[in-house]
């Protein structure tokens, strides 16, 4: 009987620990998941702030994210987040405002740090998007 339990545990272990960190699924309680992709050429004037650390750029191009995206150079790489409040239903006040290295939700005044996407006392962090550096001055943001 004990051998059966051990065999069962060994068979289940790969399913429990076989997940890749790339497979992270952001909870979609408030924010739906829309597929998009954008190539950003940082040599263009609109995106040159991304060549320097802690200079976020808000991109509100149609079809990119829900309310657009916020992209920032962290000094160790790039991050991209959805520009919608992650702890609020989509509403007229759920579009984030960028203030320096903080993104502020007008609905509840929550302040999210753009280096890590976290806000003190909030259930969900900012919704992250994937980044791929395609050349020295170009990146691709997608989900």
Sum up the structure in keywords.
143 residues; alpha+beta; Rieske Iron-sulfur Protein; 9 strands; 28% strand; globular; Rieske domain-containing protein
Give me a quick take on this structure.
With 143 residues, this protein is of the alpha+beta class. The chain contains 1 helix and 9 strands.
Q: Secondary structure elements and their pairing?
A:
Blueprint: H1 2-17, E1 37-41, E2 57-59, E3 69-73, E4 78-82, E5 97-99, E6 102-104, E7 111-113, E8 128-135, E9 138-142
Antiparallel strand pairs: 1-9, 2-3, 3-4, 4-8, 5-6, 6-7, 8-9
Structure description:
This is Rieske domain-containing protein. Keywords: Signal. There is one protein chain. The chain is of the alpha+beta class and about 140 residues long. It has one domain (about 35-140): Rieske [2Fe-2S] iron-sulphur domain (Rieske Iron-sulfur Protein). It is built from one helix and nine strands. The chain has one helix spanning about 1-15, and strands spanning about 35-40, 55-60, 70-75, 80, 95-100, 100-105, 110-115, 130-135, 140. The strands form two sheets. The chain has a six-stranded antiparallel β-sheet, with no helix packed on it. A three-stranded antiparallel β-sheet has the order 5-6-7, with no helix packed on it. Strand 8 (about 130-135) and strand 9 (about 140) form a beta hairpin. The radius of gyration is 19 Å and the shape is globular.
